[in-house]
Design a protein that fits this description.
It contains twelve helices and 14 strands. The chain is an alpha/beta fold and 324 residues long. It folds into two domains: 182 residues, Thiamin diphosphate (ThDP)-binding fold, Pyr/PP domains (Rossmann fold), CATH 3.40.50; 128 residues, Rossmann fold (3-Layer(aba) Sandwich). The strands form three sheets. The protein has a seven-stranded mixed beta sheet with strand order 3-2-4-5-7-6-12, with helices on both faces. The mean pLDDT is 97.
Length: 324
């Protein structure tokens, strides 16, 4: 196995799929010779050239519109939006056109495209460049939503997203770009819609996503020293959602905690809480608890941003108090 950072894993996945399939093209701001503003596309322009790796103007509508047209005419485009906050600029194309056109044409037109974006906080970019918007995308019928937490999942899930016949929104938590982990050698393709148990435990189930996964694991490790045994589930994809793994885990432990970077109101954890309440209410030994960012614009000041985002300490303390 190779050891890659998350930013290296992004480039590795795109290169793997572009070598395999000549219909895969890539477009976005500064993705070519510059190697990406977060250095996630280094080497792609040199290997595949300007026809397949295309720098675009600073226009999210142009990027997504071009990707939509390319997908309609037989290509498999990957479009990069530099920051996920900027989905707001092109939301009409994403939510009203890309997400719905396959349904509205009865399958005559489909959109095998991936929209990648740097998502979430922790990098001190302020309220307009730090939002975690997984719940924005999750609520739109017709979109698949992926948010990996480690390099191996970035490679495998991005490859699966590129091969998928439907539009996929692929969120890369920007504070994870420098983290390193093993990636299988050779072609690596994962399966969308599958969560993963990353830590076993008997007293409680903690469900997390993206950058919250390593924080949840560290919190569970600390709690283990106190005799509290927590399992941690990495959701990996929100749509399709692996309810089977979640419900089975909660039925075993009787307690559920969700750790969400997105603001509390209408976060993905609320949907999971609803599903668990409906499907396995009588297996619960206590109330479901959501650990979230408050419903506020994310501050840019270091100490305030750290206070707003779920921390290892807050996760551990919340579980400790509720199980005590």
């Amino acid at each position: 196995m190779a050891e890659l950072t998350c930013r290296e894993a992004v480039a590795a996945a795109i290169a793997q799929e572009m070598r395999r399939d000549p219909s895969v093209v890539f477009l976005g701001e500064d993705i070519g010779a510059a190697g990406g503003v977060f250095k996630t596309t280094v080497g792609l322009f040199e290997e595949f050239g300007p026809e397949r790796v295309r720098d675009t103007p600073i226009s999210e509508q142009a990027i997504i519109g071009a990707a939509m047209g390319a997908a309609m005419t037989g290509l498999r485009p990957i479009a990069e939006l530099m920051f996920s906050d900027f989905f707001a600029v092109c939301w009409d194309l994403v939510a009203n056109e890309i997400a719905k056109s396959r349904y509205m044409t009865n399958g005559q037109v489909f959109f095998p495209l991936v929209i990648r974006s740097a998502n979430g906080g922790g990098a001190r970019f302020g309220a307009q460049h730090s939002q975690a918007i997984e719940n924005w995308a999750m609520m739109i019928p017709g979109l698949k939503v992926v948010a990996p937490s480690n390099p191996a999942d970035i490679v495998g899930l991005l490859a699966a997203s590129i091969r998928d016949p439907d539009p996929v929104v692929f969120f890369e938590q920007k504070s994870l770009y420098g983290t390193r982990g093993p990636v299988p050698d050779g072609e690596h393709v994962d399966t969308l819609g599958t969560a993963r148990m990353v830590r076993e435990g008997a007293d409680a189930t903690i469900v997390a996503l993206a950058a919250m996964v390593p924080r949840a694991v560290e919190a569970a490790d600390r709690l283990a020293d106190e005799g509290i045994s927590c399992q941690v589930i990495d959701l990996r994809t929100l749509v399709p959602l692996d309810t089977r793994t979640i419900l089975s885990a909660v039925s075993d432990t009787g307690r559920l905690f969700t750790v969400e970077e997105n603001p509390r109101l209408c976060g993905w954890g609320a949907e999971i809480s609803s599903i668990v309440s409906e499907e396995c209410f009588y297996d619960l030994d206590g109330p479901i608890v959501r650990i979230t960012t408050p419903h506020i614009p994310l501050p840019s000041a270091d100490n305030l941003e750290d206070l707003a985002l779920p921390s290892v300490e807050r996760i551990a303390e919340t579980v400790r108090v509720n199980l005590g």
